[in-house]
Amino acid sequence: MNVHVLVPAAGSGSRLSGDIRKQYLELGDQPVLVRTLARLAALPQVTAIHLIVPEEDVAFCRSDLVEHYQLDKIGAVIVGGDERQDSVRNGLEACGAASQDVILVHDGVRPFFPQEQIGPLVQLAAIEGAALLAIPAQDTIKEVFDGRVRSTLDRRLLWQVQTPQAFRCDRIREAHRRAHAGGYTGTDDASLIEWCGWPVAVLPGHQYNIKITTPADLVLARALLECGEVSLT
Ligand code: C5P
């Protein structure tokens, strides 16, 4: 069984033109995306990593990221689609994974994923079809409409979902195919599995597995590094 990682990075917020893109923000003198890819490549379970980017970024990613930083295990650099879901679907079609292989989908802006959970996550996905990392919600979450609280959700049932999310390849391909045919759009890949009525197993993630998307996140990431709470190796 091979393990393929898909890293969707084809959003308009990550295009090369315009302002600096979030995954190219520097963390310890390298772009966050490069840090994430290098840490994924160091995992013994990972066979290949496929980067999904806008069409106009493909050449840049090959030369200035993959070659410049001598990134290991990079398979295909794949052209993304209009929505994140389209980008992942393109990745699933182009990555060359076999039906019993495991696919990890991981945000390029989460370099501090818990390495020790990847083995268990892959095993669980191979058995159950789908598995993800999550942490219990710390805050009370309310539904708000038109400036007023509509309801308060039961915090004991709420979990914040992280990536990587792991899937048996046949299952996630079929879920994407059905969602595309049925016009369903989810905000993550596990939601497509749920929409098909299939189980998704949950493993503990980590509070430091943050998504670095705002300047405040970057301040936090640098502080975590400086005080030795996380490492980039
Ligand atoms: O915008 P959002 O935070 O949901 O994007 C999540 C990830 O999906 C980002 O890494 C983004 O680059 C990627 N994405 C993509 N293709 C799109 C839109 C977003 O790969 N069309």
Ions, cofactors and other bound molecules: cytidine-5'-monophosphate
SSE string, helix = H, strand = E?
EEEHEHEHEHEEEEHHEH
Q: What is the CATH superfamily label? A: Spore Coat Polysaccharide Biosynthesis Protein SpsA, Chain A
Query: Averaged pLDDT, please?
Result: 93
CATH architect. name:
Alpha-Beta Complex
Q: Assign the CATH class.
A: Alpha Beta
What form results from the Cα inertia axes?
globular
Secondary structure tally, helices:
7
- Low-confidence runs: none
CATH overall fold name: Spore Coat Polysaccharide Biosynthesis Protein SpsA, Chain A
Extended strand count: 11
Q: How many structural units, i.e. domains?
A: 1
Summarize the SSE layout with pairings.
Blueprint: E1 3-8, E2 26-27, E3 30-31, H1 32-41, E4 48-53, H2 58-67, E5 74-79, H3 84-94, E6 102-105, H4 118-128, E7 130-136, E8 142-145, E9 148-152, E10 159-168, H5 169-182, H6 190-195, E11 201-204, H7 215-226
Parallel strand pairs: 1-4, 1-6, 4-5, 7-11
Antiparallel strand pairs: 2-3, 6-10, 7-10, 8-9
Cytidine-5'-monophosphate binds near residues 84 and 87.
Explain what you see.
32% of the residues lie in helices and 24% in strands. The chain has 233 residues and is of the alpha/beta class. The protein has a single domain, classed as Spore Coat Polysaccharide Biosynthesis Protein SpsA, Chain A (Alpha-Beta Complex). The chain has a seven-stranded mixed sheet, sandwiched between helices. Helix 3 crosses helix 5 (169-182). It starts with a strand and ends in a 7-residue tail after the last helix. The model has no long low-confidence stretch (mean pLDDT 93). Bound molecules: cytidine-5'-monophosphate (C5P). Cytidine-5'-monophosphate is lined by residues 8-11, 13-14, 52, 80-84, 87, 107-108.
